Amino acid sequence: MPLKTLTNIHGIAFSVLAVVVTCLSLFVSNFDENFNLVFLALLIILFGMPHGALDTLFAKELFNLGQLKKWPKFIFYYLMVSLVIVTFWLIAPTLFLLCFLMISIAHFADDLVAGTPKLSRTLYGGIIIFLPAILHANDLARLYAYLVDIEQAKRIVTVSHYIAFLWLAGLLVVLYQLSRSNIVSCLEISGIIMLAIFTPPLVAFTVYFCAMHSLRHLLRSLNFLTYTSKITVFTALIIPTLMVVVVMYIIWINSTPLLLDANLIKLVFVTLAALTVPHMMLLEKSGFSSWIKNN
After folding, report:
1. Are 131 and 193 in contact (CB under 8 A)?
2. Which tens digits make up the pLDDT trace of 90-116?
C-alpha cells in the first residue's frame, strides 16, 4: 500500500482515537492517580520509545555496519551523546527542560506531510508543549516539578499559559489554510488540539507520542529503509527497547518507595530527552528528515 494512503488512514484513525480519549477524559475522572502514572509511563516505554529503536537500521545503512565488530563504535558515540544530555539535566535542570521542550517542538514538527509550510509545522510541533497550559496549568507544573524546582516549573507554565493562546490563534489560521488543501492534516491537528486542551497533560502526551508520532515514524521508516524484512524490523524494535526497559527497571526498583512517582517521571522524560538528541542527529545525517519533508 502506498505511503500516502497509509499516512491518510493513520491520520484519520488517530483523529478518531483523539476524540474518543478526549470524551472519556471529560466524563471519566475518578481514576487512581498513581495507577494512571504507572500505566501511562508504561505505554510510553512500550509503544513510544520503540520507534527510536529503528535507529539501529538507520545506522546500519548509513555507516555500513554489516559486521558485528563495527557496532561498538557507533553504540559508544550514541551513548556518549545520551550521557551528555543526562549530565546536562543534572547540572542545569531548568535550562535542560527549556531546551528539551524546544527540541521536541522541532522534532514533532516533522509529523505533518510533505509540502506543509515550515511555520505550520512549528505551530503543530508546539501543540502538545504549550496548549496543555490553557486548562491544566497545575497538572503541567506538577509534572515539570519532577524535573526542576517547583518555583521554576510554575514560571515555565505561567509563560506557557500566555504563549498557548497566541499559539492556538496561529493554529486556527493554519487549520483554515489547510482546510482547502489537506483535510486529513486538519483532522490530525484538531485531534491533538483537543487532547492538549481537554485531557490531562500526561494523557495527552501519551496518546500523541504513541499513536501519532511513533507510529507515523514507523510507517515512514519502513518505506525509507532498505532492511525491512519482518524479522529484521522486529529484532530492531525489540532488542534496544528491552535493553532500555531493563535499565530503567533496575533504576526504578532501587528508588525510594515514597519517591516512586517522581523517579518514574524523571526516568521516562530524561530517558526520552537523552535518546531524542542522538535520534534526531542520526535521522538528519541519514537524510530521513529531508526525505519526509519532500516526499
Report:
1. yes
2. 899 999 999 999 999 999 999 998 888
Sorted by where each begins, the domain ranges of the chain are 3-294
Query: Is pTM, for the whole model, over 0.85?
Result: yes
Contacts of 163 (CB under 8 A, 6+ apart): 130, 133
Residue with cell 553504540: 75
Give the residue carrying C-alpha cell 537523552.
274
Please give the DSSP secondary-structure letter assigned to residue 113: P
pLDDT digits (tens, 9 = 90+) for 168-215: 999 999 999 998 888 999 999 999 999 999 999 989 999 999 999 999
54 SS3 class:
coil
Backbone angles phi, psi at 113, to 5 degrees: -70, 160
pLDDT at 16 over 60: yes
Give the C-alpha separation, 181 to 41, whole Å. 36
Q: In Å, how far are 39, 84, 100, 251, 270 from 88, measured between CA atoms?
A: 28, 6, 11, 19, 10
Secondary structure of residue 93 in the 3-state scheme: helix
Of the chain, the end-to-end C-alpha distance in Å amounts to: 15
Residue of 184, 180, 189 lying closest to 123 (CA atoms): 189
Residue 71 contacts by C-beta under 8 Å, 6 or more apart in sequence? Answer: 65
